[in-house]
Amino acid sequence: MNNLQEKNQQLGKVLRDMGRVMIAFSGGVDSTVVLKRAQEELGDNVLAVVVNSELFRDSEFDAAVQLAESMGVRVHQTEMKELDNPEIAANNPESWYFSKKLLYTQLNELAKEMDYPYVLDGMIMDDETDFRPGLKARTEEGIRSVLQEADFYKSDVRALAKELELPVWNKVASCSLASRFPYGTKLNKQIVEQVDHAELYLKGLGFEEVRVRYHDNVARIEVAEDKILDLLGKKEQIQNKLVNLGFDYVSVDLLGYRTGSMNEVIEQDQWETKLLANA
Question: In this structure, what is the dihedral angle of CA atoms 158, 162, 163, 166, given to the nearest 10 degrees?
Fold first, then answer.
């Protein structure tokens, strides 16, 4: 399917056939499109579940709850303790599998308790080509990725979100704070909060697209390429702030902001072998 209208019609059909659904809602553009279209097709037979975790910002959780409520959708708030799981805290490539496994297992238990026959997520076609161990967990737990079923790519999702006048249609993608740490760096609350506070500080300076990658005593900052000079113009105050947060050195990544940069050190065959070993 190449036509957005055709994909949207297919999405509607997939949703109508389900009848009653629970949606893992993060407040990002993908899950918001799923939630909105489910609401249009199924009315009150839709529940948005917003899950908080030590690896996601409280502000993101609160914003997701507020967005779902503003859309008139029933919302259920819950949490999961990711850092209590040694497989997740170990922060290996396969930790992403265990993170999604924990999430989807918890959602399935909740769906059974509340009598929702289907649990949906916001995965899109682009996710099939990236390093996504969560796909394996999703398949094992029977979660439905309805945007994939209707052949939606990121450009389709944003176009439909804009057409639906959703306020997050151009929202910058967010990700687990675990993505800021090199594989093998064991996660704990202290270093997660250190990175979180550093990023929030930089966002407060106007760098909306920003990542602070943790390399022990070094902070590697990624901002959009056209913002690097602006970042350097504030180098002294940024240096002082991040040193106060516990870093000894502060560096700037000359390639700029990009999602999944920690995955660049993983060879394709390495992570495929790891995932197949757990199959």
Answer: 110
User: Cβ contacts of residue 191 below 8 Å, gap of 6+?
Assistant: 181, 185, 214
Phi, psi of 269 (to 5 degrees): -70, -25
Q: Please give the C-alpha separations between residue 93 and each of 135, 178, 183, 245, in angstroms, as whole numbers.
A: 13, 11, 6, 27
Q: For residue 115, is pLDDT > 50?
A: yes
C-alpha distances out from residue 237 to 175, 208, 241, Å: 26, 17, 6
Q: Can you give the pTM of this predicted structure?
A: 0.85
Active site residue 2: no
* Catalytic pick among 175, 205, 245, 266: 175
Radius of gyration, alpha carbons of the chain: 19
C-beta contacts of 96-102 below 8 A and 24+ residues apart? 96/131, 96/132, 96/133, 96/134, 96/178, 97/133, 97/134, 97/136, 97/137, 97/275, 97/278, 98/137, 99/55, 99/134, 99/176, 99/178, 100/133, 100/134, 100/137, 100/138, 101/137, 101/140, 101/141
Assigned token pair, 52: 């908080």
CB 24 within 8 A of CB 122: yes
For residue 50, give the nearest of 17, 14, 75 by alpha carbon: 75
Q: Which two tokens stand for residue 276?
A: 């197949």
Condensed to tens digits (0 to 9), the pLDDT of residues 182-240 reads: 999 999 999 999 999 999 999 999 999 999 999 999 999 999 999 999 999 999 999 99
Task: Decide: helix, strand or coil at residue 33.
Answer: helix
Copy the structure tokens of residue 101. Answer: 């496994």
DSSP-derived secondary structure for 121-189: ----GGGGSS--THHHHHHHHT-B-HHHHTT--HHHHHHHHHHTT-TTTTPPP---GGGGS-TT----H
